[in-house]
Amino acid sequence: MTAKHPTGVRFGRLLLTGAAGGLGVQLRPRLKAYCETLRLSDIAELGTAGPGEEVQPAALQDRAAVHALLAGVDAVAHLGGVSTEQPFDVILQANIVGLYNVYEAARRHGVKRIVFASSNHVIGFYRQDEVIDTRVPVRPDGYYGLSKAFGENLAQFYWDRYGIETVSVRIGSSFPEPKDRRMLATWLSYDDLERLVVSALTAPQVGHTVIYGCSDNTTVWWDNTGARHIGYRPQDSSERFRAALEARQPVIDGRDPAAVHQGGAFVTKGPFED
Q1: How far apart are CA 37 and CA 272, in angstroms?
Q2: Beta bridge partners of 78
Q3: Distance CA 72, CA 62 (A)
Q4: Whole-number Å distance between alpha carbons of 215 and 233
């Protein structure tokens, strides 16, 4: 079911990058309701453009292609890039060089609002027995998390220097349902994902705001108080999955770094160069 948003704000042309990815395919039909034209981009297959859609594939590290991609765009939901832990050279091209290309193209084309898909892996080495807000120092749990920390800093720079507003969404775990007990804290329903992205696109003023992307879960590691001006109010909760997950995973190994840290299994991935 597509979530409803109260603002009724519509864009002329909205760009969704990473539109063929796991979250991109969820947002594709949902974001169309908020714009006249939804421009879709990815390096993977996007299929045929539907009514009110434009399909424009682009590799993020291809500067010319990205500059063409941002032409005529009112705002961007940037989900494109590598979304898993990989060797640094793989991460570098899409998530670092590619993100620079997106912001530089936004500057040249006068795009003033970007929703940047950051990640909880920016703070993955905080412990699961801590509650943190958006102002804590970053503690990335891998190359992927490092690239997202770079992205948040890049967003801050382009706001301070050029006035391009960004909401950096530290996405938790967005799936149909949580897969393990860790996700009781990190789960973000698809409907709440839509609520969050649309709120980030339409809030009157955001500057550069960092917000954690999670639903209204009972188990809480992340404090979004500093981002309440975005207007995001989650309506779903992981609590209805708790009994089944605790039965499936009754014991947590306190010696396992993946069970201790908020980043889960990402804290143990790599090295890749040995």
Answers
A1: 41
A2: 17, 116
A3: 18
A4: 9
CA 49 to chain centre: 24
Query: Contact, 85 vs 265, CB < 8 A?
Result: no
C-alpha to C-alpha distance for 248 and 82, rounded to whole angstroms: 30
- Range of 237's domain? 11-268
Residue 240, in any domain of the structure? yes
Whole-angstrom Cα distance, residue 144 to residue 151? 11
CA distance 79 to 17: 5
Query: Do the domain assignments include residue 60?
Result: yes
Q: Is the dihedral of CA 89, 94, 95, 98 positive or negative?
A: positive
Beta-bridged to residue 187, according to DSSP, are: 173
Q: Give the CATH number of the domain where residue 106 resides.
A: 3.40.50.720
Which residues, in sequence order, are CB contacts of 253 under 8 Å at separation 6+? 259
Q: 3-state DSSP call for residue 113? A: strand
Closest CA to 121 of 77, 181, 168, 164: 168
pLDDT tens-digit readout, 12-60: 999 999 999 999 999 999 999 999 999 999 999 999 999 999 999 999 9
Q: Which two tokens stand for residue 93?
A: 């091209």
Q: What is the pLDDT of residues 148-201, one digit of tens each?
A: 999 999 999 999 999 999 999 999 999 999 999 999 999 999 999 999 999 999
Catalytic-residue membership of 144: yes
Q: Does a structural domain hold residue 171?
A: yes
Query: In 3-state terms, what secondary structure has residue 133?
Result: strand
Residue 5 lies in a domain: no
Kindly state the tokens that stand for 148: 């997202």
Whether residue 234 contacts residue 195, with contact meaning beta carbons closer than 8 Å, is answered with: yes
Q: Please say whether the beta carbons of 237 and 186 come within 8 A.
A: no
Residue in 34, 103, 143, 144 annotated catalytic: 144
- Domains of the chain: total: 1
